[in-house]
Write a structure and sequence with these properties.
Elements lengths: L9 E5 L7 E8 L8 E9 L4 E6 L3 E9 L2 E5 L2 E5 L4 E4 L4 E5 L7 E9 L1
Antiparallel strand pairs: 1-2, 2-3, 3-10, 4-9, 5-8, 5-10, 6-7, 6-9
Length: 116
């Protein structure tokens, strides 16, 4: 299967998980296009000052892979910077958040949520 970028749904989520500003979510695969146990395959785009609020993943885990920009990532209370090429995982029962706290530049990450 090949899917063109023009065929991918894009939606804007305001105050995602209690975060600041908005996040542009572009689903590159939809349910029914894969057989594995997952609920999200998307790119997330955050402009400066935007974030996804801290939340816990239950019965699932989320992986981020930074494509562009610098992320401020809260990994269970430990805050780190992530750069292009860096990845992280929020495992079952853990909490995380991600933000673009840079003055300029867009943050784009690949997000995959795997279900148990």
């Amino acid at each position: 299967m090949v899917k063109s970028s023009k065929d991918m749904k894009e939606n804007v989520r305001v105050a995602m998980r209690g975060g600041d500003g908005q996040v542009i979510c572009k689903d590159f695969l939809d349910k029914g296009e894969y057989d594995g146990k997952a609920r999200l395959f998307a790119t997330l785009t955050l402009e400066p000052g935007c974030s996804i609020g801290k939340h816990v993943h239950e019965n699932e885990e989320e992986v981020f892979y930074v494509i562009q920009g610098v992320a401020t990532y809260d990994d269970n209370g430990t805050v780190v910077k992530l750069y292009p090429g860096d990845s992280c995982i929020c495992r079952n029962g853990e909490a995380h958040s991600i933000a673009n706290r840079e003055e300029s530049g867009t943050l784009t990450v690949v997000a995959v949520i795997l279900t148990m």
